[in-house]
Amino acid sequence: MTPLPVITGLGFITSIGNDRATVLRSLRELHHGFERHEFLGNPDLSVKVAGTVKGFAFPTPNWRDWRWPGEFSVDRELLRGLAPHGVYALCALQQALTDAGLAPADLTDGRTGLFCASAGSPFLLGHFLNQMHANRGERGNPMGIVSSIAGTLNFNLAAHYHISGAVCGFVSACASSSHALGYAMDEIRLGRQQRMLVVGAEDMTDESILPFASLRALSTNPDPATASRPFDVRRDGFVGTGGAVALIVEDAALAQRRGSRIYAELAGWGQAGDGHSVAASHPEGAGLGAAMRRALADARVNAGDIDYVNAHATSTPAGDRSEALALHAVFTAAGAKPRISSTKALTGHGLSLAGAMEAGFCALAVAEGFIPGAAHLTEPDPVCAGLDLPRASLDEAPRLVLNNSSGFGGSNVCHLLRRPS
């Protein structure tokens, strides 16, 4: 019998809350996490809003100046090798392990693996490279590489928790942590591992977010209450955010033996490339449509069985339109009408973090019996006609939920979460 992967632990450091209870309340009540933010100390920049992570501060590249909420334990020796998003990740993983009833000693026997996703830390990488040039290579920080490059999460967390199972980092832009979760599912289904820690994280720094302004991908709306509005006809770009989300994924048989709470079963996943553009989505959502169909096939369900879709929709004009067309092709064409919303209306777009974050939100929706509403949606784009986009959160218990992610180069990943049987 093929092992069944299930989610048994969740940890959140996000713009809408730094714990499960606060995140759940924000999703139910549609409380956003946006604030006015002055990028690079320049009030003349057109981008004015960010999804800020409250209670954390990284004012300089020196870890001695960093601050985080007092309920989290961050070892000073470990801190020397972390980026800001590594601090977020450590705090999220501490939450998730406690939530799942696991101690660090439970992770070291080779049956537990770790898959992570982030883009590294442009904040630290830029600092260390500038430092190297300034002193002509004569001095350098010995922890500079492991704290700043893509892979810093798996380097640090695997060593800190003495993980001897599968360890890997994933870099596929905004689909990265969705890939991490999909391949973690396969590690369990193939019997290679009994437990996987999946962590997605990104810095909430100017260096991680502002470069997207050059792509004209960021919203220039200065109002935090309306800057992120997926599928709305007036949307003008995404709002950047950072943070971390950790998921504990286990073989259902192991979870049952441990008496663990199971948030959701991971019933299937699918991925597909657009084969179209280095940055833009396929105009008709071809790759995302194929990924959704592959996830449905993997789970052996039909389009009509899906109760809720957490859309990737970032609030960009082209991206949201592409996804709407893909949703029509998969669901409307089959006579299906699931509820649809994008929780990025509340959090902003977390880049590599997005897939894991939204999988965590979907797990909460399944476990707590509700569907997050389409926040800030006033006038849907005409391309959305026929899609069910509820304006308020609904007290409906979804049985099957689909979570979509898309990244640069046309990487599309979809997960299907199911209410525990």
Account of the protein in words:
The mean pLDDT is 97. 56% of the residues are buried. Helices cover 31% and strands 18% of the residues. The chain is α/β, with parallel strands linked by helices. It folds into two domains: 254 residues, Thiolase/Chalcone synthase (Peroxisomal Thiolase, Chain A, domain 1, 3-Layer(aba) Sandwich); 153 residues, Thiolase/Chalcone synthase (Peroxisomal Thiolase, Chain A, domain 1, 3-Layer(aba) Sandwich). It is built from 13 helices and twelve strands.
What best-fitting shape do the alpha-carbon axes yield?
globular
CATH class of the largest domain: Alpha Beta
| End-to-end CA span | 16 Å
CATH superfamily heading of the largest domain:
Thiolase/Chalcone synthase
What's the number of extended β-strand segments?
12
Structural class determined from secondary elements: alpha/beta
SSE inventory with pairings:
Blueprint: E1 5-13, H1 20-29, E2 34-36, E3 49-51, H2 76-79, H3 84-100, E4 112-117, H4 122-134, H5 144-148, H6 152-160, E5 167-170, H7 176-189, E6 195-202, H8 206-209, E7 243-251, H9 252-258, E8 264-273, H10 286-299, E9 308-310, H11 317-330, E10 339-341, H12 344-347, H13 354-368, E11 400-407, E12 411-418
Parallel strand pairs: 4-5, 4-6, 9-10, 9-11
Antiparallel strand pairs: 1-7, 1-8, 2-3, 6-7, 8-12, 11-12
Name the features:
421 residues, alpha/beta, Peroxisomal Thiolase, Chain A, domain 1, 2 domains, ten-stranded mixed β-sheet, two-stranded antiparallel ribbon, 13 helices, 12 strands
